[in-house]
Design goal:
alpha+beta; about 220 residues; 2 domains; binds zinc ion; disordered C terminus
Length: about 220
């Protein structure tokens, strides 16, 4: 009997985090982008591995240490195989590992450009109540209020107003709207009193067709 639509948003940044530091060739601070390549140096039983970055302006390389003088036998076999083959999925995981990157370089530029995949996971398409669960596999630089405004087609001031009236409730406390979205975070909207609620719910759920399909309707 639930009159609530449940959706999951998977939020993926379009660009990897980019370290910013003084490029020895350019002579000033520049962002560096990852090149999609690893360098592996095996010396006896120990190995070093780096992820290769390039200066945005001059292509000068920076080798980000991933493993330093590590015993190959200590590494998970899957990681070792991925290192040796230069597995793109493994490289992508390293490139998006913001916490590890921060340990090597303090200033990091994060793109606010994200892709959002919306999937209806249950409930009625005619609900005025919607629960959005956020899946955030990689850290994103975008604030949650900006993300919601863009994806729901609303002004940011409206997002703030809905939160102020209790019609928008975000998991994670009072300042959560001003911070980037977190994996597993919930966003609950109660739009029974909103004249434009229908359009907001359609935007939240992706497409109207998808919602109708979930509801078992065929036309
Ligand atoms: Zn440069």
């Amino acid at each position: 009997m639930s009159d609530r639509l449940s959706v999951r948003w998977t939020i993926v940044p379009r660009d990897c985090p980019r370290p910013v530091f003084a490029c020895p060739t350019c002579g000033g601070d520049r962002p560096f982008h990852q090149s999609g390549k690893l360098r592996l140096n095996a010396n006896g039983k120990r190995l070093d591995a780096w992820l290769i970055y390039k200066c945005d302006d001059c292509d000068r390389t920076w080798n980000r240490p991933i493993y330093e003088r590590r015993l190959a036998a200590e590494l998970p076999p899957d990681d070792l195989a991925a290192l040796r083959s230069g597995d793109p999925a493994f490289i992508r995981r390293l490139a998006f590992d913001l916490a590890a990157l921060r340990r090597k370089t303090p200033v990091i530029a994060q793109s606010e450009e994200v892709g959002v995949e919306k999937v209806v996971t249950g409930g009625s398409a005619h609900a005025t109540d919607i629960e959005i669960t956020l899946a955030v596999p990689y850290p994103v630089g975008l604030r949650l209020d900006r993300l919601l405004a863009a994806e729901l087609g609303l002004a940011r001031s409206r997002i703030v107003a809905l939160a102020g009236e209790g019609q928008l409730v975000v998991g994670g406390g009072g300042n959560a709207l001003k911070r980037p979205p977190r994996d597993g975070q919930s966003v609950h909207l109660d739009l029974a009193d909103a004249s434009d609620g229908r359009g907001i719910i359609d935007a939240a759920g992706g497409t109207a067709n998808c919602a109708a399909h979930m509801n078992g309707q065929t036309t």
